[in-house]
Amino acid sequence: EAGVVQSPRYKIIEKKQPVAFWCNPISGHNTLYWYRQNLGQGPELLIRYENEEAVDDSQLPKDRFSAERLKGVDSTLKIQPAELGDSAVYLCASSPGLNSPLHFGNGTRLTVT
Amino acid sequence: GESVGLHLPTLSVQEGDNSIINCAYSNSASDYFIWYKQESGKGPQFIIDIRSNMDKRQGQRVTVLLNKTVKHLSLQIAATQPGDSAVYFCAECAGGGNKLTFGTGTQLKVEL
After folding, report:
1. Which range marks the domain in which residue B24 is found?
2. Which of residues 6-45 of A touch B (CB under 8 A)?
C-alpha cells in the first residue's frame, strides 16, 4: 500500500511570496488532514476534510492560508503571502474513518527568509 | 536532516534495556489515544493505539498503558534497539471525532 505522498519535500521562499503544498492521501481514505509542526513541538491541526468538505478549519489562519480538496482525493494547502513565522514542517495525513490511526506523509519543510 | 527533537525531554537507555515513555493528557473526555514515532526528516509513524475502555494493549515489543483516573498514558518498549531512537508523541482524540491533539514529544536515545 502506498503511503501519503507530499510534495515538495523542501521549499525556501522569501517573505511575502506565495507557496503551495500538495498531498495525495492513501487510496480509500476519506479523511484528510493538514498539520503544522514547529521545531521541537508536536504537530498542530490546521484543517480536516471529510471527502471534499472542510469540517474543521478553526485553526487555519484564513487571512493568508487556504486549502482545497477537489474531488475528495488530493489536496493543496496555500499560503499567500508567507511570513517569517510560517517556517515549519507542513504535514498531511489521512485516515479511513473515525477513531482510526492517522497515516502521515513525510511533510514539506518550509523556510521563509 | 534537522532533528525535530531539539529542546524536548530526553530519555537515554542502553541497548537491550526496556524503555518507558510517559505522557499526561489534558482532556478527560478523550476516548482514543495513539503513540507515534517520529524519526528525523520523516512524518510521525503509527506505533500503537488504545481506546478508553481498555487499560492495557500490547503489540510487538510495545505495550501501552492507560490510567484514566490520573489522565496518564505510557509506552513501554521491550529490549530497546538502536532503531528505536526517535521522538515519541502521544496523541489524544475526544468525542468520537477525528481531531487528534498531540502532546509534547520525548526524545529517546539508545546507547550502544
Report:
1. 10-111
2. 31, 33, 37, 39-45
